[in-house]
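User: Teach me something about this protein's shape.
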Amino acid sequence: MGIYDYVHCEYPLPGLDDPTKIEFQTKSLDTLFDNYRITAEGKLEIEEYDVEDRSDPNAEGFARFIGCCARVPTGWKPVDFSGILNFYGDVYSGNLMLISFEWFEFDAEFKNGTLTNLSRVEEIRYE
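Assistant: First, the predicted structure itself:
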């Protein structure tokens, strides 16, 4: 497991009818649980945010810390990334109640934040 970032993809991906339905993960970037997206035009962006204290002031003990550093999205900013962004997921990513055997993994090559090449790494199917 470990720390990772999320990748939301609007760009067409081989083997997927609608890549926007999958929440991909990557360890190719800063690994701070940040949200990145690949736009339909092939640009890499990061979701910027402010941090607010949205905790319950009446809560006691550990519950007082829940929400103390809530992320509040403020918009998307281009990322000047050059290199290979490896991202992966399955059709049930984000839903812990379901186990999927439809794994999708991609290598997206970027130059100065613009997608230059995209390939599917492998397809794993368990029958």
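Now, about its shape. The longest strand covers residues 114-124. The radius of gyration is 17 Å. If you'd like, I can walk through any region in more detail.
User: That's plenty for now, thanks!
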